[in-house]
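Collaborator request log, item 7. Partner lab (contact: R.S.) asked for a structural prediction of Biogenesis of lysosome-related organelles complex 1 subunit 6 to inform their binding assays.
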Amino acid sequence: MEVTTDVSPEIINRSDKIDNPYKKSVKTLSKGFIEVLAPPLTETKKHLKELQETQAHLYDKLHSENLILSEVQHSDELHSMIDKIKVYNLKLQHIKKDIRTLHEKSIKLKKRALKLQDLKQAEEEIVNNPPR
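Returned to partner:
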């Protein structure tokens, strides 16, 4: 953006020749202002530079980790392992179902065996001790 002025070069040159009574004060105040603010500004600049270097380092590290993760995600070995996990999980579910079924059948058989044993004992008692 350009600033245009209607001041002729003669006026500008004349203003340099005019003795400004505040010129020395302005220079002194400017120098003091710079002396007061320069150290914190240089310190801030130093901290910003360190921060930028740290950010660049973290960015590079994050980028490399993303590349590694991307390679792993697209790995055929990983996909085959996941497929095996699915197959083994289904097999495990079927085995659990079979075990539950066998457990239920064994409980029924135990009950039946106890009944048969009771009936056999009752029959033996009848045979050994006939009613009179």
